[in-house]
Amino acid sequence: MPWIYLLLAGIFEIGFAIGMKYSDGFSKPLPTVATVVAALISLFLMSQAMKTIPVGTAYAIWTGIGALGVAVLGIFLFNDSASPARLGCVALIVAGVIGLKLVSTP
């Protein structure tokens, strides 16, 4: 169950980061509220996951999921660059997240 919490925390981390873009510096009420709610849910789920997953592993995977999701959504939603170098760096993040999962015990 802690890995499911961590995955969900990462997904809400993506929502939090994308929400910040849509909130326009927290000047738009609805996106701002959604962003804050996503952040709170993400942090709560992360805290549950860290009851059994080592803090360094949990944090690295949480931020990796967030970075991957935001990078991909940035390409589709905001026309961020999809250059081979950028995609290669995203692939390294994915490799790191998978590696951490494989070497973690809980």
TrEMBL record:
UniProt entry tagged with the keyword Membrane: yes
One of the protein's GO biological processes: xenobiotic detoxification by transmembrane export across the plasma membrane
Membrane topology annotation: Multi-pass membrane protein
Subcellular location: Cell membrane
Molecular function as annotated in GO: transmembrane transporter activity
Keywords on record: Cell membrane, Membrane, Transmembrane, Transmembrane helix, Transport
InterPro entries: EmrE-like, Small_drug/metabolite_transptr, Small_multidrug_res
Keyword Transmembrane belongs to the record: yes
Transmembrane segments: 29-46, 58-78, 84-103
Any single Pfam family the record assigns to this protein: Multi_Drug_Res
GO cellular component terms, A-Z: plasma membrane
Recorded family membership: Belongs to the drug/metabolite transporter (DMT) superfamily. Small multidrug resistance (SMR) (TC 2.A.7.1) family. Gdx/SugE subfamily.
Record-given protein name: Guanidinium exporter
Lineage start: Bacteria, Pseudomonadati, Pseudomonadota, Gammaproteobacteria, Lysobacterales
